C-alpha cells in the first residue's frame, strides 16, 4: 500500500479540524472539529502501522484504539459541559463565555470585613 493517499487525507482532515477549532463559535461544532483532529491522528497511526513494521507489532493500531477511547471520554465530558452551559446561559456560543468570575450584584461588591477574633 502506498501511504501518500492516506497521509494526504489525514492532513486534509487535520486542516479542516484546525480551521473548525479556530473559526467556530458554537461549542457543539467545536467538539466536532476536535473529533476530526483525532480521526486524522488515528488515520496517520493506522497508516504508519501498515506501512512501517516497527519493533512493536500492531503498535499503531493499539495507539489508535487508545485515541478512540480518549475521544469517547472527551465527547461524554464535553457534551455534559455543553448541556450545563446551555441550561445556565441559554446559548452555546463560546465567545459569550466570561473567562473571569463576575460579582453577582451590589451585595457581592459590599463584602463584609473578616472578624479579627476569627483570624487569631
Give a written overview of the molecule.
It is elongated, with a radius of gyration of 23 Å. It has helices at residues 4-23, 27-51, 59-89, 106-109, 116-119. The protein has 120 residues and is an all-alpha fold. It is built from 5 helices and no strands. The chain is 70% helix and 0% strand. It starts with a helix and ends with a helix. The longest helix has 31 residues, at 59-89. The mean pLDDT is 81.
Notable characteristics:
120 residues, mainly alpha, 0% strand, elongated
Catalogue the unreliable spans.
none
Could you give the order of the helices and strands?
Answer: HHHHH
Indicate the mean pLDDT: 81
Main sheet record: none
What is the total tally of β strands?
A: 0
**What is the approximate shape?**
elongated
Helix content: over 70%
Structural class: mainly alpha
Percentage of residues in DSSP E strands: under 5%
How many helices? The count is 5
Distance between the termini: 75 Å
**What gyration radius follows from the Cα positions, in whole Å?**
23 Å
Amino acid at each position: 500500500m502506498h501511504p501518500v493517499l492516506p497521509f494526504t487525507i489525514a492532513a486534509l482532515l487535520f486542516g479542516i479540524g484546525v480551521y473548525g477549532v479556530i473559526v467556530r463559535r458554537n461549542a457543539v461544532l467545536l467538539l466536532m472539529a476536535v473529533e476530526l483532529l483525532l480521526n486524522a491522528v488515528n488515520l496517520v497511526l493506522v497508516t504508519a502501522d501498515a506501512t512501517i513494521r516497527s519493533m512493536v507489532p500492531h503498535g499503531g493500531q493499539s495507539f489508535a484504539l487508545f485515541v478512540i477511547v480518549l475521544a469517547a471520554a472527551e465527547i461524554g465530558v464535553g457534551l455534559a459541559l455543553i448541556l450545563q452551559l446551555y441550561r445556565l446561559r441559554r446559548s452555546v456560543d463560546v465567545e459569550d463565555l466570561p473567562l473571569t468570575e463576575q460579582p453577582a450584584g451590589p451585595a457581592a461588591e459590599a463584602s463584609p470585613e473578616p472578624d479579627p477574633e476569627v483570624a487569631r
